[in-house]
Fold:
Amino acid sequence: MLTAPVNKIIPFSNVDGPGNRTSIFFQGCPFNCLFCHNPETIHLCRSCGACVASCPTHALSQDDTGAVHWDSSRCVQCDTCIKTCPHDASPKVRQMTVEEVLREVKRSAPYIRGITTSGGECTLQNEFLIELFTRVHALGKTCLIDSNGSFDFEADPRVLSVSEGVMLDVKAVEPGWSDQLISYPRETVLKNLDYLLRVGKLYEVRTILFPGRDRENEETVRYVAAHIQDGCFYKLIRYRPFGVRERYQKLLGEDETDAEYAESFARLARELGAKNAYIV
Structure:
């Protein structure tokens, strides 16, 4: 029976694709983005126990083998455990079957257009996604993939055949800046950009704009805009330090990206043909 580590399920979201959607966040990510706003989804819990003593409601415990257990009935979602964890993980991850995830989707089904799978990086659970999407389509709902682009969709297009499209992160184009930002080769991401556009499965591209990084921001925006033209949405995201790990805030800047500065890149993208570029 297929299972996958699920960090959380948000029943209703209007920022994860068209319409109201249920967003499913899977645990695990091959990237280590310096600006990550949910670093607790990067690694699986090691059961180090650092979070147990810090839990104010005693919702966490360790058994005789040292494994950490989470009691959801006691949890008040204060996220103290996540702030305490030294390993960018969460003790609240659930190993769920497709049927269990589907059961939660069905609760919201009358009020949503579809689901969006995210993370972490949801394509690490590719086989799980294929079965889940097939079952969700049987409910008359759509399925979108929110991806960092590390999975080679062209080499294994099966998950695309049961999904409406991909929301793809293109975090940086310049090799040195990309390596510094994400600690992962960017080649597969850029290959996916072209492939998904070619097969009509690219719903949206997203790039974060960093303050004081004029050259790097412009290089990425020019590259993406020239490639996508008006083939999909281009979401340019203002960097905001809230939620970023403290050890990286000084490197990236402690101020958020200025709105007018960001808008100048949106105008550039539109001038280059990406007519659906916008700022958030």
Notes: DSSP finds nine helices and eleven strands in the chain.
